[in-house]
Amino acid sequence: MSGGWNTIESDAGVFTSLVENLGASNLQFEELLTLEPSELSSLQPLYGVIFLFKYPTDTPYTSSETPLDGTFDHDAASRIFFAAQTIQNACATQALLSVVLNKTDEVDIGEKLGEFREFTIELPPEFRGEALSNSDLIRETHNSFARSSPFADETAPKGGESEDVFHFIAYSAINGKLYELDGLQPAPISHGECTMENFPEKVVDVLQRRIARYEATEIRFNLLAMCRDLRVRAREFGDMELLEREERKRKDWLFENALRRHNFVGFAGEVLKGVVESKMKDGKVDEWVAESLERRKKAEQARRAGQDVEMSG
């Protein structure tokens, strides 16, 4: 199997299933649609958030000596789990682990992740990153949630404009401080004193300052909160409506994740074969092909007409 890492989506169902498949229990991710502390507070106990943002390639992301916000806490790297990102496309799972591996007092992370943490916690961040990127369990679990890509365009021109790059980082309250955990940075970034109780207010303040550094037209951000499985709360309080809603959500996530993994090329080919066989049986293949060519011709004429209008305008 290839040792590469594939990109995965910033999706609550993907991240929830990912952390469960890694062996952790009673965890859930929820997508946040607003930057309101009250929305985060409603999910308590809240273990952390994962933030997806466009990685700036035209301006410095941060200084190696001083971050744009907060302060580097080099000493914390030896006390908490912080890993340097050593491989491309691993940042989603790395951000997830940056939260869950620092919450072992509150979360059951399972045997495999427990062994990984025990093995790496005494290592420096760069070796933790190497251990993470070389973990078959973590890489294979991560890649199992990548979208199927059956076609590769080898004719695409090289050296053209690069696509926008996006990056995942984590924020969590650890040992009484709010930490920004970004494997591309030299150390955890401290944003001051913080408890689990006031984490929603503190992290929203930090995120608002971060977003404000972008142009007003940039809206491609995503925020996922890691909280306790909401079904646990529903059972504790006897909230059958919440329990039913959460169980239905899990079924939807299971279906959506199955679709992500599935390669539909074979299915589409069988459908096309069936259509062709049906047309041949009816003796209408030539008519069908002629109709298709006529529709394509009209579509091309309409496209050219639109271009002419645009140029004359």
Question: Could you explain how this protein is built, in words?
Answer:
The protein is an alpha+beta fold and 313 residues long. The protein folds into 2 domains: 12-148 and 164-228, Ubiquitin C-terminal Hydrolase UCH-l3; 266-312. 46% of the residues lie in helices and 13% in strands. The protein has 11 helices and 7 strands. The protein has helices at 12-21, 37-41, 91-100, 110-120, 125-133, 136-143, 199-212, 230-237, 240-261, 265-282, 285-312, and strands at 27-31, 46-54, 71-72, 166-174, 177-181, 189-193, 222-228. A 7-stranded antiparallel beta sheet has the order 1-7-2-4-5-6-3, sandwiched between helices. Helix 1 (12-21) packs across helix 9 (240-261) and helix 8 packs antiparallel against helix 9 (240-261). The model is unreliable at 149-161 and 309-313 (pLDDT under 50).
Second rung of CATH, namely the architecture of the largest domain: 3-Layer(aba) Sandwich
Low-confidence stretches: 149-161, 309-313
Helix vs. strand class:
alpha+beta
What string gives the helices and strands in order? HEHEEHHHHEEEHEHHHH
Instruction: Indicate the overall shape.
Output: globular
Largest sheet: 7 strands, antiparallel
- The pLDDT mean sits at 84
Can you count the beta strands? 7
Q: What is the gyration radius calculated from CA atoms?
A: 24 Å
Strand content: 5-15%
| Major sheet: arrangement of strands | 1-7-2-4-5-6-3
> Span between N and C termini?
55 Å
CATH class of the largest domain: Alpha Beta
Overall number of structural domains: 2
Do you know the CATH topology of the largest domain? Ubiquitin C-terminal Hydrolase UCH-l3
Number of helices: 11
